[in-house]
Specification:
By secondary structure, the chain is α+β, with helices and mostly antiparallel strands. The chain folds into 2 domains: 89 residues, Phosphorylase Kinase, domain 1 (2-Layer Sandwich); 204 residues, Aminoglycoside 3'-phosphotransferase, Chain: A, domain 2 (Alpha-Beta Complex). The protein contains 10 helices and 10 strands. Strand 1 and strand 2 form a beta hairpin. The chain starts with a helix and ends with a helix.
């Protein structure tokens, strides 16, 4: 069934009066701008086999609604349980980029948006990158999916990161967990956050570390983001953030490797996996890796 017929059947709209414009964005789903009756909407259609990527559509739906109540995400207008399609309100504003986030004051704006999200209603499920990494490794092994060379050799260091973070755990909050620049929209006043596929209650330093890694923030900007969110950038908080930056790459490396094997989207997922793993592997080998562990343990 084409998009026009699907929308017409689900919403009772006249397909002949519906204007559909594909949105070339996203690495998992198909997205569309819909114009109908003088209004604009956003339609998200799930990609195939996303259960292998650990996407729980009911969790995503619940958390998208919770984020809207926190005034940080779009409202859900309709949901089709048969296809998993979600019709969302259209948020005016520009889709952000890594380049746009280099503007002065952006870490403070990110921190403000994240505090809104984290202070909102609890999400349905928890998110744990260590457990997700184990799940992705199982998927890769069971399906014979290639992973980057040397990945398994670094798992003992992944265990050291988990132990260091567990020494002084932070209370979990509702987190997005996948903060690519394109998952932020700027309306000129506030930053909105979209796409809650991997959302779940999590350590806030993962959220900060993940977005710092995705946006390519240098050490000074990492410190600025940490201070804007927590009110200060202590050595322990910065260490937690930087260890979580490594874990962001560790987990999403496997996501990209699996996508390279299953996705129909025209994108170099394997190249993305290798890039991420190269960055994580370099971090494991740096002289300051043990110092980060010690700072996190010291608290």
């Amino acid at each position: 069934m084409d998009v026009a017929s699907l929308v017409g059947k689900a919403l009772g709209w006249d397909p002949s009066k519906l204007r559909i414009q594909p949105i070339v964005a996203g690495l998992t789903n198909k997205n569309y701008r819909l114009d109908y009756g003088g209004r604009t909407f956003f339609l998200r259609m799930p990609g195939p086999a996303t259960e292998l990527l650990a996407v729980d559509r009911e969790n995503e739906l619940h958390n998208t609604r919770a984020a809207a109540r926190a005034a940080v995400g779009p409202r859900v207008l309709q949901h089709d349980p048969n296809t998993g399609a979600i019709l969302l309100e259209w948020l005016p504003g520009r889709t952000m980029s890594n380049e746009a986030f280099q503007a002065p004051g952006m870490p403070a704006r990110i921190a403000e948006a994240l505090r809104r999200l984290h202070a909102g209603p609890r999400f349905r499920d928890d998110f744990d990158m260590f457990r997700l990494t184990e799940y992705y490794l199982d998927v890769a092994r069971d399906r014979g999916i290639r992973i980057p060379d040397g990945y398994l050799d670094r798992l003992p260091q992944v265990a050291l990161i988990e132990a260091a973070l567990a020494a002084h755990p932070l209370a979990t909050v509702p987190c997005h967990n996948d903060l690519l620049a394109e998952n932020y929209l700027d309306d000129g006043k506030v930053l909105w956050i979209v796409d809650y596929e991997y959302s779940g209650n999590n350590d806030p330093t993962f959220e900060l570390g993940n977005t710092a890694q995705e946006l390519g923030f240098d050490a000074a900007r990492q410190e600025e983001l940490c201070a804007a969110y927590f009110g200060e950038a202590t050595p322990a908080l910065l260490a937690r953030m930087r260890l979580q930056m490594i874990m962001s790459d560790v987990g999403w490396t496997l996501w990209a490797a699996i996508q390279a094997a299953i996705s129909s989207i025209d994108y170099d997922f394997w190249g993305w996996a290798e890039e991420r793993w190269g960055r994580a592997s370099t971090a494991f080998g740096r002289d300051d890796f043990d110092d980060l562990l010690a700072e996190a343990v010291a608290g």
